Amino acid sequence: MKTIRIKGLLGACLLLPGLAACGASNTASPGTPDAARPSGTVTTSCGLSTRVPAPPERAVSLEQNATEIMLSLGLADRMAGTSYQTDPVLPSLAAEYRKVPVLAKQYPSHEAVLAEEPDFLYSTLSSAYADEAAGPRAGWKKLGVPAYLSAHDCEKPELTPGEVRFDAVFDEIEDIATIFGVEKRGERTVKDLRVRLDRAVREAPKNTGAKVMWYYSGTTTPYIAGHGGLPSTVSELVGVDNAFDDIHQKWPAGNWEKIAERDPDVIVLADLTRGGDGDSAEAKKRFLRSHPVTSQLDAVRHNRFIVVPGSAMDPSIRSVSLAEEVSKGLAALYG
Description:
This protein is an alpha/beta fold. The chain has 2 domains: 41-200, Nitrogenase molybdenum iron protein domain (Rossmann fold, 3-Layer(aba) Sandwich), CATH 3.40.50.1980; 206-334, 3-Layer(aba) Sandwich (Rossmann fold). The protein has 11 helices and 13 strands. It has helices at 64-72, 94-97, 110-114, 137-142, 166-179, 183-203, 230-238, 256-262, 281-290, 298-301, 319-334, and strands spanning 2-5, 41-45, 48-52, 59-61, 79-83, 102-104, 120-123, 147-149, 211-217, 223-224, 241-242, 266-271, 305-309. The strands form 3 sheets. The chain has a 5-stranded parallel β-sheet. Strands 9, 10, 11, 12 and 13 form a 5-stranded mixed β-sheet that branches. α5 packs antiparallel against α6, α6 runs parallel beside α11 and α7 (230-238) packs across α11. InterPro entries: ABC_Transporter_SBP, ABC_transptr_periplasmic_BD. Residues 1-23 form the signal peptide. Pfam families: Peripla_BP_2. It comes from Streptomyces nodosus. Belongs to the bacterial solute-binding protein 8 family.
């Protein structure tokens, strides 16, 4: 039996020059277990260990990030359900997504999940396992159903590392691949992501000295990126300063007067599709240009914006695209 664990996020993501190019083709059929796989695994995530006796055949992904990781591994045919779609599914995964039953617009209830007779649950967000959602993982363990949770959002905050690093995202993808017996598919997926990340870092303009504000949501109270989240890591990798990295919260509530004091050179705008106040990138731009304080920010006056999908700011299969888009945006502004 093979034991896998979500690896820690404490080490920095090391991007070594000269990574070999990765082909995108996959010789194994999607979802087909690799040869010579052990008879079972023990998965340990966020402190809870559960035995997975065989590759799951009726898995349920409880939110979109988990869904897209599974689909990227070719596992649509082994999914009994999905839920909580927050954005349009990645175009490359749309056809596979349509094969999977949607159990709920947001999180399904415990009863709704149980009715699907799942043999594996997966979420990158602990809120999926709340009492009012699918229910606690420990309860599912008693029912013999493994329930996997990403390391970056454990139920107990003390188990969640203080920084999100790409190595942890890649480890999670390989963990899921191991559980489903598609290790080679997982290795190829991660290799491709590493090559893309290495390229994005290499192509980012050097020595810009730019101070960047990552603006996620809100107008009256803006939520911006502090230290420890994916934006903080991407800032470090592409060689810019997160203007609020001294705030040791991943998404602190900001204040426009305080933001004006720091006067960021560039603003990265999360483009959210949920329709709330200031969610879309265009709504953010309109607000920033009309507000008496924000309209005087250097980034606003000089139109130094970089737009990225809001979903890419969370650790997921989309994380590398965040580094790519910011690298391209910086090159357009400073190249």
